[in-house]
Amino acid sequence: MATKTTPTLVDHLVVGAGFAGLCAAIKLDEAGETDFVVIEKDSDVGGTWFANTYPGAACDVPSQLYSFSFALNPDWSSHYSPQPEILAYIKRVARDSGTLDRFVFDTLVLDARWDDGQSRWLVSTSAGEYAARTLIAGSGGLSEPRMPEIDGIEGFQGEVFHSARWNHDVDLTGKRVAIIGTGASAIQIVPELQRVVGHLDVYQRTPNWVIPRNERKYTGVEKELFRRVPATQRAVRAGIYATLESRAPAFTRFPGLMRAVEGQVKKQIAKAIDDPELREKVTPTYRAGCKRILISNAWYPALAQDNVELVTDPITKVTADAVVTADGTERPIDVLVVATGFYVTEPPMAQHVTGRDGRTLADVWGEHGMAGYKGTTVSGFPNYFQIVGPNTALGHSSMIFIIESQVRYIVDAARTLREQGLAAVEPTAEAQQEWTEAMRERMKPTVWMTGGCASWYLDKFGNNTTLWPGQTFRFRQLLSSFDVDKYDVAPLTEKESVPA
C-alpha cells in the first residue's frame, strides 16, 4: 500500500532561481522572512543566463544597470556584459547572500493548488511536496522555448536545437546550417556562426530595426575607482538609468520620435550592405520600437558575407536533410538552429497553478489574456505573487529595476500577512479590472499598438499584456508599499498559527 508523503511546511515557496527568485530570497531573508524554499528546474542559479549559452550570448542592457542595486559589480569587463560574466555575477551574489541553503535544484513544479481549508498552496514537485503560505513565481517569461510548428521538422535527420538549449557537442565547422528567426538571440548567433560554418541560411519572417551597439571596455583604472569609491559607480549607474528613461516617451506617447532611430539604422544598413535587394529585405516597413529594437554592430555585415543567404520566403516544410520554402526552393542543411523565442504571453507555469475556484491560471488567462493587479497578484489566486507578471516587461530599460520593485511589494505583503494576522490576501476583482483597463487605455497611443507590426508583445486577443506602458520610476512608486485596502483578506482562524 502506497504511503502519502507529508508535505514540507514552509512560509514562502519561490519558483525559479534567476534574477527574480534570487532577489526574492535575499530580500525575504533580510526582512526576517527566513522560512522559505527556492525551487529551480536547472542545476544552479542563473535562470535565463544559465540556460542561454549560445555563441555570442550577451546582454543588450548596459551592465551597470543590469545588476542588483544592492550588489554592484565593479568588475564588469565592458558596457554590455557577455553571458558568462552575468552568470558568474549571479552565482557570486547568491553565494555571498547566505541564502543558498534554502535552494533546491533540479526540481520541477508539477502542480500547485490553493487549499482554502489550510490557507496554503499545496505544491507537488519532482522532489517532493510543499505546503506554503505564499507562492512566489519567479520563473519569468523567457523560461520555456517555443518550437516552430513546421511540417516535417520532427523528421529532420540532422542535429536540431533551440537557441536556448544550445548543443555544444555539435561541431559546426564547415557545416551547412540554417537558423530560423531573426530576433534578439539570432542577431547575436548569426555573426558567430558565419565565421565558422560553410554556409548559413537565415530565415527571416519580419526584419528588425537594429541599432549600433556602442560597446566599450572598462579600463583597469575605472574598475579600481568603482571598487574603492562605490559612489562613482552609483553615479555612473544613475546616469545610464536617466538616459534610458529619457527614451520612454518615444515608446509610450510620441512614436513619431522613432523616425530618428529609423534614419540611424538606415545609415548603418547602407554602410554595411552593398546589394540593394538585401538592403530592402533587412529594412522594416513598420515604426521603430513596435517590435523590440535590437542592438548589434555585426548583424548587417554578417548578412552581407558570401557564405550567408537571407531567406524571406515562408518555410513550407522541413525534410530529412533540407528546408523547403513556398517558392519550391529546397536548401540542403546539416544542422537546424531554431531561434523562435519563448512562451511569453502564455507562460507554461500558468498551466500548473490552480486557484480558489478550481481553474488554472492558464484557463483564466486563456479567456481574456494575461491580467493581474500591479502585474504581481491575481484575483482568485490568494497569496500568489508573480514576478515579471502581466504588463511588467520593458522595451527601454533594465528588468532588474522592475524585479526589485515587485520584490519590495511582495516582501511588504508578507509583513502585512504577519503583522495583521492574515491567512490570505488576493486583489479584489474591481481593483484588478480597474488596473487592467488603465493599462489598456495607456497602451493605445504607444508605438507597440500604433507602429504597424505584429510582435510577441501582443497576445491572441491583440492586447499588449507584456510591457509596462510608462517610465519605471512610476512603476516603483505604485508598488512602494502593499496596499491591503485593494485586497480581499481572510484572517487566521484558531486552527491556524501565525507564521513563526
Automatic annotation (TrEMBL):
UniProt protein name: NAD(P)/FAD-dependent oxidoreductase
PANTHER family: FAD_NAD(P)-BINDING DOMAIN-CONTAINING PROTEIN-RELATED, L-ORNITHINE N(5)-MONOOXYGENASE-RELATED
Organism: Nocardioides panacisoli
Superkingdom of source: Bacteria
InterPro entries (UniProt xref): FAD-bind_Monooxygenase_sf, FAD/NAD-bd_sf
Matching SUPFAM superfamilies: FAD/NAD(P)-binding domain
Coiled coil: none
